[in-house]
Amino acid sequence: xxxxxxxxxxxxxxxxxxxxxxxxxxxxxxxxxxxxxxxxxxxxxxxxxxxxxxxxxxxxxxxxxxxxxxxxxxxxxxxxxxxxxxxxxxxxx
Length: 93
Description:
Layout: H1 45-57, H2 61-73, E1 76-80, E2 86-91
Antiparallel strand pairs: 1-2
Helix pairs in contact: 1-2
């Protein structure tokens, strides 16, 4: 996955490297990825099972809406575009 904090590359002159554990986006906590899709294996087992079923069905707009509803009832949410690709899985606080 492309590192949006260093879009030009970490060794580009004039662009300092931002450490991965520093808050770079609103809501970031040090050391915790902003998108929980990046660390699915650390989520509760019931959430992992929902995400596994989601992946098996494939990603489209209608499937995203269905699984978004399921995950919201379990305290999680995500974003998706018209292409049906989910991103930014977060816990609802």
